[in-house]
């Protein structure tokens, strides 16, 4: 090489190892019912799950809950409250620390819309004592453990 010109070595970025992500899922409660939708995403395909998604940079858990429910169902939520957190290793590549928030619809007469049809087949209210099957794995685990999202009065 002339004049000692430096040649930039070819670099290849090594694949980054999978990292845990933060999810926020919402127990949206109406009377004794909870809002669930059949997932069409690869993770938990065809299982019934709560509305929710991944925490974005700078968001509070409540902000994420409000945003995800609005994006996925069009519903405006109210009275958001932290419930619990679970650590879910779902597959070799998917590890989610999931924050669970409880909320109620601001308007009980507002109907949920399927705003992300590629991710969810449709939303409906289900009696807590008669949940549809199969539930999304992490949700099934919570139900099996006796978890109850309703406020004790
Ligand atoms: N939506 C939802 N997520 C849950 C539940 N239980 C649970 O552990 N999670 C965890 C695993 C999910 O992969 C993760 C994020 O939710 P998601 O899979 O619906 O994410 P998304 O595509 O709607 O969100 P995004 O990436 O567009 O932000 O939260 C649940 O019942 N519903
Ligand atoms: Mg989602």
Automatic annotation (TrEMBL):
GO biological process terms, semicolon-separated: dGTP catabolic process
Q: Taxonomically, which superkingdom?
A: Eukaryota
Q: Name one GO molecular function term.
A: 8-oxo-7,8-dihydrodeoxyguanosine triphosphate pyrophosphatase activity
* Residues in Nudix hydrolase domain copies: 19-149
* Record keywords, A-Z: Hydrolase
| Gene Ontology CC annotations of this record | cytosol
Per UniProt, what is one Pfam family of this protein?
Answer: NUDIX
The record's section on SUPFAM superfamilies has: Nudix (SSF55811)
The UniProt entry's sequence similarity note says: Belongs to the Nudix hydrolase family.
**UniProt name for this protein:** Nudix hydrolase domain-containing protein
Naturally occurring in which organism (per UniProt): Solanum verrucosum
Q: What is the lineage of its organism?
A: Eukaryota, Viridiplantae, Streptophyta, Embryophyta, Tracheophyta
């Amino acid at each position: 090489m002339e004049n000692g010109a430096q040649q930039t070595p070819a670099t290849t970025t090594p694949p980054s190892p999978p990292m845990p992500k933060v999810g926020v899922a919402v127990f949206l409660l109406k009377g004794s019912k909870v809002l669930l939708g059949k997932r069409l995403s690869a993770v938990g395909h065809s299982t019934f799950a709560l509305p929710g998604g991944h925490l974005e940079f700078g968001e509070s858990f409540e902000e994420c809950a409000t945003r995800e429910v609005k994006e996925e169902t069009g519903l405006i939520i109210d009275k958001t409250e932290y419930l619990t957190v679970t650590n879910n290793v779902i597959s070799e590549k998917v590890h989610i620390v999931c924050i669970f928030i409880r909320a109620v619809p601001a308007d009980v007469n507002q109907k949920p819309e399927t705003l992300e049809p590629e991710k969810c087949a449709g939303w409906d209210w289900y009696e807590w004592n008669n949940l549809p099957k199969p539930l999304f794995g992490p949700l099934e685990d919570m139900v099996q453990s006796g978890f109850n999202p309703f406020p004790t009065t």
